[in-house]
Specification:
Layout lengths: L23 E2 L2 E9 L3 E8 L4 E8 L1 H4 L2 H16 L8 E7 L2 E7 L4 E2 H8 L4 H20 L12 E8 L2 E7 L6 H7 L16 H5 L5 H17 L9 H10 L15 H9 L11 H21 L7 H7 L25
Antiparallel strand pairs: 1-2, 2-3, 3-4, 4-6, 5-6, 7-8, 8-9
Helix pairs in contact: 2-5, 4-7, 4-10, 9-10
């Protein structure tokens, strides 16, 4: 409903999101656009029944006209809503209204990882590890429900305020494969196309081979690489060259960008970014477990002071070739304070 009460068909205004502001859609009052992709627009909206703020995702109108997609969408929305995990954005409702498929999710204030990297550049190893661990936990929980994300990227990783100094951020993974598997099964993607983002897409997605949770391991590896290096593992002049690199080129060592990081991280990322799924980690948590070990070794070395330049105290002690001379005899006037010494 518009502010004046007249009903409007949101499919008419899908490409002009400003015209949806102030409208009521499926019991949600649209407030402002907060994100946009090729197949959906996400708005901040007000749940008029429960008086709470939500993120309302509206899918492109042509998707609702495909019966196979609509059935898959309904099924996968139900599966996603059933996952109760602290690092997965909860799905509150999903359905169809006026020819538009919608998903209502928890609204997470803050920023996504893409915005954080654009503002700060490469992160510390410990910060990157904390973020990766939370994302990995979310992905493995989804895989246990037979959901594969297929589009893990910084823009789908939301960073909210944490609880204390030991947990300075709380990470949510959003935009799960509610539509991506459905797109391929419904025929809305064609031969030679795939669902994913070029900088983070797994080789098997590019070649059209079957995918499982290990394609998310690869994408998470690309994200972790970027959080530490400040750039994705592969950079090429055009899309075809980038796709080729994902399939055939070895990722450059992370320490080439960050020589301050331990060489063990190169081995961990090389395994996460292996070209064939069988050569990768079997789960995302296996990946971040090795990541934690590599980062912890560096932290222990730093605390032990290994490799630091000699301090002034170090230099004085190290330069002594002979034992120190005995202290000089006290002057005569000081003799009374040394009992037993009589001259």
């Amino acid at each position: 409903m518009t502010a004046g009460g007249a009903a409007r068909d949101p499919s008419v205004t899908y490409g002009r999101p400003s015209e949806l502001i102030g409208q009521e859609i499926a019991g949600y009052l649209v407030e402002r656009e907060i994100g946009r992709g090729g197949m959906a627009v996400v708005y901040r909206a007000r749940d008029l029944r429960l008086e709470r703020t939500v993120a309302l995702k509206l899918l492109a109108p042509e998707l609702a006209r495909n019966d196979t997609f609509r059935k898959r969408f309904t099924h996968e929305s139900q599966v996603a809503a059933a996952i109760d995990h602290p690092h997965i954005v909860p799905v509150f409702a999903a359905g169809e209204t006026n020819g538009i498929l919608y998903i209502a999710m928890r609204y997470v204030p803050g920023q996504d990882l893409r915005a954080l990297l654009d503002r700060q550049g490469p992160l510390s190893a410990e910060t990157a590890r904390r973020i990766a661990t939370q994302v990995a936990s979310a992905l493995d929980a989804a895989h246990a429900h037979e959901l594969v994300h297929r589009d893990v990227k910084p823009g789908n990783i939301l960073i909210a305020a944490g609880t204390d100094s030991e947990h300075p951020e709380h990470v949510y993974l959003t935009d799960f494969g509610l539509t991506k598997k459905s797109l391929s099964l419904s025929g809305l993607t064609t031969v030679g196309q795939f669902v994913g983002t070029l900088d983070y897409v797994a080789p098997e997605q590019i070649s059209g081979r079957p995918v499982d949770g290990r394609c998310d391991v690869y994408s998470l590896g690309c994200v972790v690489y970027e959080t530490l290096a400040g750039t994705p593992p592969f950079q090429r002049d055009d899309d075809l060259a980038l796709l080729w690199a994902h399939q055939y080129d070895a990722p450059p060592p992370l320490t080439g960008h960050r020589p301050d990081l331990p060489a063990a991280l190169d081995d961990v990322l090389a395994k996460a970014l292996a070209k064939t799924p069988d050569e990768r980690y079997g789960s995302c948590l296996e990946f971040v477990s090795d990541l934690r070990v590599a980062v912890a070794r560096r932290a222990l070395a730093d605390r032990a002071g290994g490799g630091h330049a000699p301090t002034r105290v170090d230099a004085r002690i190290g330069d002594r070739a002979t034992p120190p001379a005995p202290p000089p005899e006290p002057p005569r006037w000081a003799m009374p304070v040394f009992p037993g010494r009589v001259r």
